[in-house]
Amino acid sequence: MTGPLGFDVDPWSLGLTGVDVDRLAHRESLFALSNGHIGWRGNLDEGDPRGEPGSYLNGLFEERPMPYAEEGYGYPEVGQSVINAPNGQIVRLLVDDEPFDVREGTLARHEQRLDLRAGVLRRDVEWISPAGRAVRFTTERLVSFTHRSIAAVRCVVEPVDEAVRVTLQSDLLANEGLEDVHHDPRVQDALERPLEPVAHHARGGAATLLHRTRRSRLGVAVAMHHVVERAGAAAPSVSTDASDDLARTTIVAELEPGERLEVVKLVGHEWSAELAPATLRARAEAAVDDALRDGWTGLAEGQRTRLDEHWACVDVEVEGSPRLQQTVRFALFHVFQSAVRLELRSVPGKGLTGKGYEGHTFWDFEAFVLPVLTSTLPEAAAQALRWRHATLDRARERARHVRLGGATFAWRTIDGRESSGYWPASTAAFHVNADIAAAVLHYVRSTRDIAFEREAGLEILVETARLWRSLGRLDPDGGFHLDGVTGPDEYSALVDDNVYTNVMARRNLEGAAAVARRHPDVAARLGVHDDEIEAWEAAAAAMVVPFDERRGVHPQSARWTEQARWDFEGTREDEYPLQEHFPYVELYRKQVVKQADLVLALLFGHDAFTLDEKQRDFAYYEPLTVRDSSLSAVPQAVLAAELGHLELAADYLAEAATIDLDDLQGDADAGVHLASLAGVWIAITAGFGGMREGEDGLSFAPRLPPGTTRIAFGIRVHGRVLRVEIEPERSTYRLEAGEPLSIRHFGDELELTAGEAVSAPTPPLEVRGERPTQPRHRAPRPFREALGDGA
Amino acid sequence: MTGPLGFDVDPWSLGLTGVDVDRLAHRESLFALSNGHIGWRGNLDEGDPRGEPGSYLNGLFEERPMPYAEEGYGYPEVGQSVINAPNGQIVRLLVDDEPFDVREGTLARHEQRLDLRAGVLRRDVEWISPAGRAVRFTTERLVSFTHRSIAAVRCVVEPVDEAVRVTLQSDLLANEGLEDVHHDPRVQDALERPLEPVAHHARGGAATLLHRTRRSRLGVAVAMHHVVERAGAAAPSVSTDASDDLARTTIVAELEPGERLEVVKLVGHEWSAELAPATLRARAEAAVDDALRDGWTGLAEGQRTRLDEHWACVDVEVEGSPRLQQTVRFALFHVFQSAVRLELRSVPGKGLTGKGYEGHTFWDFEAFVLPVLTSTLPEAAAQALRWRHATLDRARERARHVRLGGATFAWRTIDGRESSGYWPASTAAFHVNADIAAAVLHYVRSTRDIAFEREAGLEILVETARLWRSLGRLDPDGGFHLDGVTGPDEYSALVDDNVYTNVMARRNLEGAAAVARRHPDVAARLGVHDDEIEAWEAAAAAMVVPFDERRGVHPQSARWTEQARWDFEGTREDEYPLQEHFPYVELYRKQVVKQADLVLALLFGHDAFTLDEKQRDFAYYEPLTVRDSSLSAVPQAVLAAELGHLELAADYLAEAATIDLDDLQGDADAGVHLASLAGVWIAITAGFGGMREGEDGLSFAPRLPPGTTRIAFGIRVHGRVLRVEIEPERSTYRLEAGEPLSIRHFGDELELTAGEAVSAPTPPLEVRGERPTQPRHRAPRPFREALGDGA
Fold first, then answer.
1. Res. B264 pLDDT band, cuts 50 70 90
2. For FRET with B590, which of A38, A694, B474, B719 sits at 20 to 30 Å CA-CA?
3. If we measure between CA atoms, which residue out of B471, B548, B553 comes closest to residue B505?
4. Is B34 exposed, middle or buried (0-12, 13-18, 19+ CB in 10 A)?
5. Where does substrate bind (chains A, B) (predicted)?
């Protein structure tokens, strides 16, 4: 059974048979491996053909010029782009004198499989060379969860029917020649060969390359070592050469039928802005030496153990839709591996699966991914939030530069410096600061990590609260307004009183005040005195949330609902995404929503709106929301579920879950959409689970997606694990260990004790209003069609 | 008597003694000569030292890339930059073997004088070479008003006391090496050597260079010819050489005391996108041959005759302030010479006096300069409006591209294609279209040029009216709104219902309807039917002009007055202009006005506001207007005068008049501010003259600037000339010829008959309200101080 794009359907893996050379880049993104420090795209081992080679180290980037047709004060002059670290993936195979290439000879078998329990990407090839020599070539690849700097490849070559001479060329390749990096030749210049060689070393089956980026001056060391674990009767020959940009170990073996050549390649990666080359080299080589002791078996066991532990706590089980089961686990796997070994870094919008968005991290990490990490992998959430804290000096400097108070975090960045080239949709999108603050508050509430709150959290809250105070204005009636900002929806900009921004800023101000009062010693150290705290509370209390009395709905921003409505009927299907066919000047002045904005406020600020308001707002915005962004379907799924539109919620869930598998946005070549994948978990837990988190703890209102018979999910809270099981007639809650926990089920309080399952019945579904409609051509696919398994 | 920056005070010239090498660029702009086709900056004849060499041909430009840090739909990809045509100004002098250089030897005398009646720039030098040889070197230079393609230089060299050998090297120099053309290397590449050599010719005392621009593919031919009109006893030797980028005629003479070498250099210029090189060459040489028949004397007489005629009709006479007299004539001279020989071209923001704004023309040409041309040089106004008409196809294409109806003219351009790199302050500034429409309506009303109205005017009105209809939206109460536009004030952007835009668009719609009804045959040819005309009328009638009831003033745009007020008290003097010290994100969301916007509406839409509204609006906006743009002082002057604040009006008049002479904006190096210079005429006629033009003809309410005793000005109307003379107690109107004309004087109708002066008394001054204040550090200089002559 295969899904729409040819992947088979399996609860614990994603498999693909055959090679479609034109779609390689897409598959490389899906099959990418990562641990949050290293990212290896799923390139074919032999390096060619390829979609886009990718071997990334989180935080390793090059600077590039930012060109402007017309300059303006405060425009960033230096941009940042992710670059490829020296690539250790490559293992080329020669059979006799013929190089293995999937486009030549006969490919009798070709299967790739990402194993979501083993944490390994496997490939199984049977190839008959143009000269008629048949070999079986199997590889396994991992990016280690237990050895942060290590990625590894295990290759096995076996003759099928007659003796062959087999050569493996295993490379470390730096500065791979890429074409069309950027259409601006200055940027192209900066990024084409970003690595300056510093040194290279080779010895036995090992080698190390040392480089430095030309402009950002970051050092990078990549070391490799080969273990020929078993072979035929004759010992294979092994030799290694290194030059500036290439180290190569060549292994040659004569194999009789029944014999095999088995090689394990261990690759260690280090980079640093400060360390000396000799230190970097030593660390990369030490990582390899350390991994050598574990060997392939140890590394692979480490993967499985770490994943077993993860799945045991937070796996999402789906019964009744095998494809939904698969896509949900695929999504959670990518979220997990994007962050499991984070150390004081953020996660880019594409994780480490591609160079999309230039490797930048955006607000949607804190808004969509970080809450999921907080609930499933809290130690990674802490690392990411501590990274934001580490960029506070840059955020303060940016605020000073744009003449504001407090701190304003970068809209898009790798190292914390603002790297946006279009200020109306970046500098003005101040909500990123409230999103970070919300992530801080949620993390602390979920984890009770008071050390973090004192060391980092409060300072983030204080500086962002200061920003809002400096941004706001009081009207003559005492209302507090935020003018001239941009909300999440990128088809509007520079608006007044964006509801999402104001609601989130209010929470930011309230949170800063509450936490400052909780830690007066830390607050005092940050220069916070009572009058400032009171001013935050006053601003929060006076925050204006506009409401359109005439239409009975919240406008996305002040007077937004008075604008002309977009001509959806006159817009052709091929004119989406609109931003590629219409100028901002048209988009900005009309009622058309790229991505949930007011509806996102209904989700993230759920307690600020009545159910009745949610119903009217959702009904109003659904026909205006075109979902030209991958950040839209998830909040729409949650609101649809909350209002009882379970089919619609399932449609949006399916869209979020298949966005990369089915390449719905046409850009998965450049990496997966991590926020959308994280959103799958949100759509299930907050959407179908009805899970909300507030001052009074967790509440649930569980429902099943139509056609499914059981869904179970887990959530980490206060160091405990809560498993929730949804069945048609009832839900069951089970606290795995720890102190008792009080939750609510459809408003009823349930007291949970460790190890004891508590069930409660599902009340009849209340559907609020008609199922809302979407703009012409923009309704989501029905989930049964999207999932392709009659779910 | 000299003014603040060292220019002497003379009613008919601008003179300067000595050379300040650090301020050369500024003086080159002031001393620039032009005829609307050719522009020669006032560079020293010998080419060095120089501020910025300038020899421009109106419409000759090179294309250049437009870089963006983040791309967007509809962003122009190709920019346009004015370039230097091969430079024919240069005449280098050698005295014996020593090159004349103002920085070497002894400069016993150095005077430059721009003669506003003769239309000639004179230079008078006495130089003692380092070897002690003394010569007198006088040059005169003109850009011909009678021979459109011709500029000429007359040089005279005389030994002072002993015999010398004198060499004149007269150059045509192409692709002069400029430094720092642009900080973007791609733009630098495009503009550094923009001219490809095509051919060169030399014969006798003549030469021609033929070039083509590399990207824009425009051909340019420049020819020169030398006439050695008189010399010493021994005939001078004359030889000419030419190569790709340089043609040089060398004239050597041995001169005894009392003898002199006199050389006239004629330079002919042609450029074209279509003509073959041979044709271009032929035309440039024919222009020179034609000018040869007139000789220097004939050319100089042509200048004076043309200016005599101009001054006789439209000179502004000022008594009681010699410096105001001089600055006003200087301003009018620049306006005249910027346009007198226009042929289907516009006038750049800097005229042809410098490469500021890349040689682009903007809305302020139609808004500020064109009305002055219409009233003083109407044939030039027609040429400029016909040029806009000729760009209609590009404006229609641009409208289609940005998904709008009708046509949207380029915000900044040389050839009609949009060349703006920042859309919020260009594409969104749709008012340019209404400004052009207003210029059409004013031109036709003033000239009764019905042929123009039928051939060009109506089509402009129709296509711009269509634009407004496609831009607007109707509210549920039937009001017509223009959302998401940018008005004249560049410290606000993307606002709703900008009052200036709405008032001007309303006039545009009304005008299109009225003119279409007047010429139903032309309208039908343009596809205009009655229902479309009625729709324009309906939109105009329903146009919303927002009003702030709470504050009793018009907001600059909807709800603008609700924004936070800029912190003027906390802004240091050195933080102006604000855009160089604050980001747009701060400027846009606060009440701070770069340049008159609502106040410009009060001027251009004067009949849409009551006097009481004007008083309250002006009092409200004065304290918010920082005049970081040269386009601000003039409308402020007019409104101040209308409200009886004559001292303030005089302060603003003085600011407009001295903006370049005193380099108030610090950028006169790159050319004069033509709109501000034209605005001097507006400040005098509309401001102190109280002149308004409406459906019922011209009205006046004349007052004198404090300290002046008499002002007289002339205006062309319906082919006639009306002279207005303001004295303290009365004004006198005199129609020079033609049909009788009815005007109003302080509301009283006066019937004027040709040749008969009609006087009427000046009623007592009514001052409306307190003199408004300006932001701290931004009050205009008192006019007596600005004019430096105790006026």
1. very high
2. B474
3. B471
4. buried
5. 363-364, 594-595
Shortest Cα distance, chain A CAs vs residue B173, angstroms = 30
Q: B555: which chain A residues are within 8 Å (Cβ-Cβ)?
A: none
Per-residue confidence (pLDDT) for residue A190, from 0 to 100: 78
Please give the Cα distance from B361 to B414 (Å, whole number): 6
Residues in chain A: 791
Q: What is the mean pLDDT of residues B53-67?
A: 96
CB contact (8 A) between residue B586 and residue A404: yes
How far from the centroid of its chain's Cα atoms is residue A419's Cα? 19
Helices B458-471 and B431-447: angle between axes, nearest 10 degrees: 150
Residue A182 has pLDDT above 70, yes or no: no
Cα separation of B135 and B126, whole Å?
Answer: 6
Residue range A403-418, pLDDT digits in tens: 999 999 999 999 999 9
Q: What residue of B is the nearest CA neighbor of A426?
A: B585
Q: In A, which residues are within 8 Å of B418 by CB distance?
A: none
Choose, out of A75, A482, A498, A585, the residue to mutate when testing the contact with B (most B CBs < 10 Å). A585
Of B68, B73, B579, the CB nearest to A421: B68
Q: CA torsion sign, A627 to A631 to A634 to A636?
A: negative
B490 catalytically annotated: yes
Phi, psi of A249 (to 5 degrees): -105, 130
Residue B745: CA count within 13 A, CB half-sphere:
21
CB B774 within 8 A of CB B619: no
Residue B389, classed as helix, strand or coil, is: helix
Q: What is the pLDDT of residues A587-601, one digit of tens each?
A: 999 999 999 999 999
Q: Catalytic pick from A140, A158, A490, A693?
A: A490
Helix, strand, coil percentages, rounded to 5, for chain A: 35, 25, 40
Q: Which residue has the tokens 């209308």?
A: B642
Chain B residue numbers touching A559 (CB-CB < 8 A): 496, 558-559
Phi-psi region of B21 (alpha: psi -120 to 50; beta: other; left: phi over 0): alpha
The answer as to CATH 1.50.10 being correct for domain A303-375+547-791 is yes
Angle formed by the axes of helices B458-471 and B530-542, nearest 10°: 60
Determine phi and psi for B268, rounding to 5 degrees: -110, 140
Q: What is the pLDDT of residue A4?
A: 55
**B13-22+87-303 carries CATH number 2.70.98.40:** yes
Query: A16-68+75-291 and A303-375+547-791: same fold?
Result: no
Residue to mutate among B71, B585, B586, with most A CBs inside 10 A, is B585
Which is it for strands A710-717 and B237-242: parallel, antiparallel or unpaired?
Answer: unpaired
Q: Once rounded to an integer, what is the mean pLDDT over residues A733-759? A: 95
Annotated binding residue A595: yes
A607 DSSP 8-state letter: G
What distance in Å separates residue B439's CA from the closest CA in chain A? Answer: 25
Report residue A337 as tokens.
Answer: 């591996």
- Report the distance separating Cα A740 and Cα A723, nearest Å: 14
pLDDT at B394 exceeding the cut of 70: yes
Q: Tell me if B424 and A427 make a contact (CB, 8 A cut-off).
A: no
* B376 residue type, one letter: T
Q: Could you read off the pLDDT of A423-482 as tens digits, one per residue?
A: 999 999 999 999 999 999 999 999 999 999 999 999 999 999 999 999 999 999 999 999
Q: Does the A391-546 domain belong in CATH 1.50.10.10?
A: yes
Is the CB of B184 less than 8 angstroms away from the CB of A67? yes
d(C-alpha B636, C-alpha B650), whole Å:
10
Class of A16-68+75-291 per CATH?
mainly beta
Entry pTM = 0.95
The amino acid at A549:
E
CA distance A276 to A285: 14
